[in-house]
């Protein structure tokens, strides 16, 4: 049985900076020593709306990067799309605001022990945690190539400094407004054939993850994906964020994406049964 | 003297009883909102609670309802889990020993599709040591057939409790968990008490629905869900008040949207001997502990030296 991230703690933390980046907000939050416990793929659950809020549930966000600065101590970066009521509140918080967090939560991307060739695939702002992962993989000596896709240019998140850890970056938009017109999944099959890719790491909409799985399941490539199901608690007690996953014996059960995920081995996820009754 | 007499304020005796079961304080998890305690133990010691009410368990492993299973609503949420769980055998093998090792007091919640299934579950639990009480959940709204919500039918409610009582014998307290979605809650409460329930858990979630305007269809995979959170608290307070008024000697575990110490005291004043915390833990993993502290301080500030003196206090004021 999977257990909650053993480093998870509830803390009050200061918002160090809040910058609009295109359609997204980049939030830097001081989390002190907990930054060292955050791994690429982990997420944070944040209270929204203030003490008298009618929003009773936390909002979960992938941690895009952590760093240790001499000025602020340990910080984490989040890339937030102000789409819902809760994320709009968060993006409206001023620098210096105090946030209530539970962090770090969930599983992390597995990093290969050998310097192998890897492909990172991000959809929309799902690309955010991939840049932190790219730095980790790069430091491990892996060759890191990245594909980013979105419906339109404004939804591509690709910061300049993030590209440093990436050997190549290709962008795909469905309307052709940035990079190549098409879907981010279009080139994957040929890339697997042409390059010696050992692992694909992905983060984005479930349909994208499922489409990547359809390609990797025909190959020896390992596909680690960060899944997305709506969550109420983020700490494994509400049982809302489940999806069907097989174990080694083939037995399928409904696993919590907050504890057994968000990073999962795509080969075990029963993509055709997501959202269905088993 | 209170159990935690180290505070600077007047000591308050927080101990409570439900049937013949004793608890060091009146703060419990709500069934289905803490799994079997492992996850919350990352944030506090389970033995610091009055007790852990485990997620309702059925005879067999169950995968539950399709996603989406939740929708946030104003001051609340809908859930549509559908009693996902490991089944009673795995639960007894894995979860009970864990909770005993944590020195937690355990209330096991059971749910069945038939009267017989409840009795079967009770039979399996009869020989398990370390359990303080059994909660008989006859009111889960997230089942395919609303006819299966026993707590909406006085006769069916009685039959379930009668079956469990006969099977379990006289030792272990039985807590019947009831639904507020009925016309006459007191009638159903009387029925289950007559059938052998020692106590009542009030209230289960309130049946609700959200329509997704993008799809123009019900948002939840299971279409309907149970509404919980502060939005339903006045309904819960009313239910506890009405039932306590009718049966003042029957202990009530009160729940429904309790988020802080004042909410807990409100429920206690209405007639609850203990309170369960559910949705508040989703937003704040430390909610159970902070509510316990706030309740103690509030009782002390109001001059209570014992929790027992506050139980049902709202009724006494009326009589004065």
Task: Explain this structure.
The complex is a heterodimer of chains A (278) and B (320). Chain A has 278 residues and is mainly beta. Chain A contains 4 helices and 16 strands. Chain B has a single domain (16-319), classed as Aldolase class I (TIM Barrel), CATH 3.20.20.70. Chain B has 10 helices and 16 strands. Chain B has helices at residues 88-101, 115-126, 154-168, 185-194, 233-246, 261-270, 279-283, 287-301, 307-310, 313-319; strands at 16-18, 21-23, 27-29, 52-53, 70-73, 76-79, 106-110, 131-137, 174-177, 199-202, 206-208, 211-212, 217-218, 225-228, 252-255, 274-277. In chain B, strand 8, helix 3 and strand 9 form a beta-alpha-beta unit. The longest helix of chain B is centred in the middle third of the chain and has 15 residues, at 154-168. Chain B starts with 15 loop residues before the first strand and ends with a helix. The model of chain B is unreliable at 1-7 (pLDDT under 50). Chain A binds chain B through residues 1, 3-4, 6, 8-10, 47, 54-58, 100, 102, 229-233, 235-244, 253-254, 259, 274-278, and chain B through 32-35, 38-40, 42-43, 55, 61, 63-70, 72, 74-77, 79, 81, 84, 94, 221, 229-230, 259, 279-286.
**How large, in whole angstroms, is the Cα Rg of chain A?**
18 Å
Give a quick account of the main beta sheet of chain B: strands, pairing sense, barrel closure.
8 strands, parallel
Report helical residue fraction of chain B.
25-40%
N-to-C SSE series of chain B? EEEEEEHEHEHEHEEEEEHEHEHHHH
User: How many structural domains can be distinguished in the coordinates of chain B?
Assistant: 1
Uncertain residue ranges of chain A: none
* Tally of helical segments of chain B: 10
Globally, the shape of chain B reads globular
Radius of gyration of chain B: 18 Å
State the name of the first-level CATH class of chain B: Alpha Beta
The CATH architecture of chain B can be given as: Alpha-Beta Barrel
What is the count of helical runs of chain A?
Answer: 4
Largest sheet of chain A: 7 strands, antiparallel
Count of the separate structural domains of chain A: 2
> How many extended strands of chain B?
16
Q: Into which percentage range does the β-strand content of chain A fall?
A: 25-35%
